[in-house]
Design brief:
By secondary structure, the protein is mainly alpha-helical. α4 (73-95) packs antiparallel against α5. It has one domain (4-112): Topoisomerase I, Chain A, domain 4 (Orthogonal Bundle), CATH 1.10.132. Helix content is 49%, strand content 0%. It has helices spanning 25-41, 48-55, 60-67, 73-95, 101-112.
């Protein structure tokens, strides 16, 4: 099946191939909402790459530019919400034991900052502390 984000007439794609330039969250929000609604209607998963394509971005770096607040707080919050929606769907799949766990974990680690964490217990008992003074001339 062809990617619906590449369909002719997708409002976020610039016919000249230049990435869209969003100057406000009000302009970006309908594109983000349309992406999620289309994915729901077509029973397709949310993905960061799909969101980037829907927004007309040619790279992950462009999306991160917006997500890091370089285009204002409202756009940053919108991007945080969109990323959270993708993360939520992926984490639900892990809990429900659906899909390729290794791929889901890889995506969560690389796009959402998840980490493997292990705790190491360090049980050390100190019985005696000695202080030795050393003469530097010796």
């Amino acid at each position: 099946m062809a990617n619906p984000n590449l369909k002719k007439g997708c409002p976020s794609l610039n016919p000249l191939g230049k990435p869209r330039d969003y100057d406000s969250a009000d302009v970006m929000r309908p594109v983000v909402e349309a992406y999620f609604q289309r994915q729901i209607d077509e029973k397709r998963p949310f993905t960061m790459a799909g969101l980037q394509l829907a927004l007309g971005f040619a790279s992950r770096d462009t999306m991160m530019h917006y997500a890091n607040g370089n285009r204002g707080e409202e756009i940053q919050e919108l991007m945080a919400f969109a990323k959270l929606a993708v993360e939520e769907q992926l984490s639900e799949k892990l809990v429900r034991d659906e899909g390729q766990k290794v791929g889901i974990v890889f995506t969560l680690k690389n796009n959402f900052g998840w980490k493997d964490q292990s705790e190491v217990a360090n049980n050390v008992t100190v019985n005696e502390i000695r202080r030795t003074v050393v003469d530097p001339k010796e």
